[in-house]
Specification:
By secondary structure, the protein is α/β, with parallel strands linked by helices. The protein has a domain of 281 residues: Amidase signature (AS) enzymes. Helix content is 39%, strand content 11%. The chain has an eleven-stranded mixed sheet with strand order 1-3-2-4-6-5-10-11-9-7-8, with helices on both faces. Helix 3 runs antiparallel to helix 4. The two termini are 25 Å apart. The model has no long low-confidence stretch (mean pLDDT 94).
């Protein structure tokens, strides 16, 4: 197979080809680096999905896998050994910088691996590098990176969503078969929707957060970014499970996820549609496409049921009190003295002046905005009125989900109310960026699993996402629904959706044209 053909396989197809010795891991890894060098470019010209490349180590791991597979130890290898992977830059890794796309951590090298990184190393997945993101995961466009904007492979003039736009763009542009991301309010799922890929936010606590640079600790969750539901389920099985180093980790096994994603059976599945999330703010193309899909699901044997969630309308304001409050707490450590890069003002500077100068230089505007919001919400006299009230609303949202799941197996919504926005459109209007999270935030508040898959094209021939949400620990049901609908839509599209991704060449990248 040619390098161009290799990189367009799914991760599971790559794993099968490696096991059958159709190609080697070194060939596969080199093909991906060739693609990265061809189209990723820089912040000035290119997709700019990666902040750091790990070429030497990745090729060494790939060569080790090939050697083991050729010898007597082939049976000891993990089924996915040799399949390359990318990692979001807020997940710590030994031997590579971990910056969270912030000047505050520029050049920082972690002395330890995150648990999910340890697991992919043990499985011998070559790590291609670290992907771009909104600074400290604060943003929905990947324009808030201190090291430049990532572009959407479907339209270089649009954002890939955020905060994990780098991971999603790398997968969509065939620079990586799969990647790790983190999701605090939609940071895996929204980029998946905007780039025509698949993204999963697991049940809170089902994947270890040890080694994830915290944004909002009660909301953060690591999950997979892939091109197919089956790939997402396979990676989820690999990274999931209990971890003693994470106090919030669940005692749960995830061995049946891939089988569930491959069932392709919709008969008898009860799919809920939230009446509260179908009003103003949704684009016409989005509404039309979702209505078409709901009709297809009914014809395929699923039972479509409208469910009520009266407190869901308050999820967005509750989130934007809880999240900044936890941000304020987590960012306090970055003072230029104990953590983070230090800036010393001229003269005989005091400790407080060093802290102020370090934070002023190290944090971007969006991080500062959320720190100020959270500090105010936690201040004396306001903590119960704001933060306490938001936590009570969070409980009401969780109860709405519990009641809804008594009637349905999964809840289906669009992943975002619109398609990807043009670069620059939301920089001057942060409120519009916050409002775009209205459909993804509830799952984080409730701690439930959610998967976004491509649902087709809407305005400007851009991808739209379909989001499936299920009860806590009901990943098998969510993957079953997502995989079956993905298969149904493949028949409608005539091919897997990711094969429809526009062609990218160095010439197109240089001109910045819509591919």
């Amino acid at each position: 197979m040619t390098p161009a053909e290799l990189i367009r396989l799914t991760a599971l197809e790559m794993a099968e080809g490696l096991r059958n010795k159709t190609f080697s891991s070194v060939e596969l890894t080199r093909a991906h680096f060739a693609r990265i060098h061809e189209v990723d470019g820089t912040a000035e010209a290119g997709i700019h999905a990666f902040l750091h490349l790990n070429e030497t180590e990745a090729l060494r791991v790939a060569a080790e896998v090939d050697e083991l597979r050729a010898g007597s130890q082939a049976d000891t290898l993990h089924p996915y050994a040799g399949v390359p992977i990318a990692v979001k830059d807020n997940i710590v890794t030994i031997g590579q910088p971990t910056t969270a796309a912030s000047k505050m951590l520029e050049g920082w090298m972690s002395p330890y691996d995150a648990t999910v990184v340890r697991k992919i190393r043990e499985a011998k997945l070559p790590i291609l590098g670290k992907t771009n993101m909104d600074e400290f995961a604060m943003g929905s466009t990947t324009e808030h990176s201190a090291f430049g904007t990532t572009r959407n492979p479907w339209d270089l003039g649009r954002t890939p969503g955020g905060s994990g736009g780098g991971s999603a763009a790398a997968v969509a542009a065939f620079m990586a078969p799969w990647a790790l991301g983190s999701d605090t309010g939609g940071s895996i799922r929204e980029p998946a929707a905007f780039t025509g890929t698949v993204g999963t936010k697991p049940t809170y606590g089902s994947v270890s957060r040890y080694g994830l640079i915290a944004m909002a600790s009660s909301l953060d969750q690591i999950g997979p970014a892939t091109r197919t539901t089956a790939d997402a389920a396979a990676l989820h099985e690999l990274i999931g499970g209990h971890d003693q180093k994470d106090a919030t980790s669940l005692q749960t096994s995830w061995d049946g996820l891939l089988a569930a994603a491959q069932r392709r059976d919709l008969s008898g599945l009860r799919i809920g549609v939230l009446s509260e999330l179908q009003g103003p703010g949704f684009s016409d193309g989005m509404r039309r496409r979702v209505d078409q899909i709901l009709e297809m699901l009914g014809e395929a044997g699923a039972e479509v049921i409208t469910v009520d969630a009266p407190h869901m309308r308050y999820a967005l304001p509750a989130y934007y009190l809880i999240m900044p409050s936890e941000v304020s707490s987590n960012m306090a450590r970055y003072d230029g003295l104990r953590y983070g890069n230090r800036v010393v003002p001229p003269g005989d500077a005091t400790v407080s002046e060093v802290m102020a100068a370090s934070r002023a230089a190290g944090f971007g505007d969006e991080v500062k905005r959320r720190i100020i919001l959270g500090t105010y919400a936690l201040s004396a006299g306001y903590v119960d009125a704001y933060y306490g009230s938001a936590q009570r609303v969070r409980t009401l949202v969780q109860r709405d989900f519990t009641k809804a799941f008594e009637r349905v197996d999964v809840i289906l919504t669009p992943t975002a109310p619109t398609v990807a926005v043009p670069i620059g459109e939301q920089l001057s209007d942060p409120m519009s960026m916050y409002l775009n999270d209205v459909l993804t935030i509830p799952a984080n508040l409730a701690g439930i699993p959610a998967v976004s898959i491509p649902g087709g094209l809407a305005e400007h021939d851009m991808p739209l996402g379909l989001q499936f949400q299920g009860p806590p620990r009901a990943e098998e049901t969510v993957y079953r629904a997502a995989g079956a609908v993905e298969h149904l839509l493949e028949q409608d599209f005539g091919a897997p959706f990711y094969t429809r991704a526009p062609e990218l060449t160095p010439a197109i990248i240089a001109e910045g044209e819509h591919a």
